Amino acid sequence: MSFFDYRDGVLCAESVPLPTIADAVGTPVHVYSAGALRQAADAFTSALRDLPSARFAFAVKANPNGAVLRLLAQRGYGADIVSGGELRRALDAGIAPANVVFSGVGKTDRELIDALEAGIGQFNLELEEEGRVLAQFARRRGSRAPAVLRVNPDIDGGTHAKITTGRRTSKFGVDIAGAPDMYDRLAQLDGLDLQGLALHIGSQISNLEPLEAAYRRIGELVLELRARGHTITRVDLGGGLGIPYRPEDVMPSLTDYAAMVARVTRDWNVCLTFEPGRIITGLAGVLLTRVIWVKPGVTHPFVIVDAAMNDLARPALYDAYHRFAAVRPDGRTMVANIAGPVCETGDMFGIDRAIDHVDRGELAVFHATGAYGAAMASSYNSRPLSPQVMVDGDTFELVADRTLPHDTSTRRQNEPRTTGPAFNGAMPQAA
Ligand code: LLP
């Protein structure tokens, strides 16, 4: 069942016609479906239900909206965080500190201390020194920090170069070759309660093979660490499962993923943690936008919409494809370049695309923007951050306002504005 579908020729989010949302809050606006979120959240946990013990930590970076996090918390998800800001959001959403996993290659002292004080459940160590510093902070507080060591298995996830993380040369994790000796050293620290391993080889992975290969390497490492006398009780398998962005995309099924995990981890005898992000929220959101102009172009017209790369950075950053569809399609199609208004050549959502025919003033959506959409928004070109709306059945709620992050200038409110000469069009004189 699709939660974004046409009724009487009008695209709806669940039972709410998208024009109703555009009228209420304006465009551009990120629209989420609570039903789609629940369905994706439950599909993931129920596929993996038969594993002896599994924990689910939603990767907050994919969608940190408080309403999204609350919904996921109610369905048993903890949080995988990468900053103090994400820690705050997770706790504010009612996620128990014990269900928070702290990933991230550059945790500051402040962030480590705050997370210790909050009593989070797991630190994923990215380098030996981080373990030593964390152990010191914990000892000072008379506690032991629960931790696992993130290992880089040197497996290419086979995804876009900017979101692959498991190659040896990437900044993430510690080299698997040196991991056993490093583990020996870290396990001796008083302030650390080292319980196992973590990995994450990349995002939008469309094939189970690299995941399976990476998991197998970690399995071998578990055996080796046990042979060295360590008690290994946890392995964090990260996230990374892809979603279909294009109609023709075929992604591994959750059933196949679960079967692979069960097969590979059968003898591990550990508690597994999963850190899914995109697969939970990606398909549960659309970016609703209005066509400002249809501008003639040399080859094809430019459909210039009021959403831009600051609302959805993925096309500009990774050449990502997001399906464009009219809210009231009339059956005609056109070939066009879809552009945002930001003053960057790269602010394009699609080039030479066959799309629904649209005219000035009409509404359209970009599909599958629920992960790494609003999460990566900026206010570039002093464009406000777009609002976010959660639809549930036939109701909807504003879950983030349209805001322009405030001016950072130090000028006080009533201070006179300028000191220099007024610009009068004269060219400056060379000195
Ligand atoms: N765990 C760790 C340690 C991660 O670094 C990530 C994502 C995840 C879990 C969640 O991965 P997912 O299940 O969502 O694939 N902005 C990019 C994606 C960056 C992913 C960063 N790490 C994009 O828009 O494609």
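^ LLP complex. Residues 423-428 have pLDDT under 50 and may be disordered. Residues 59, 62, 80, 103, 163, 200, 203-204, 238-241, 275-279, 314, 318, 371-372 surround LLP (CB under 6 Å).
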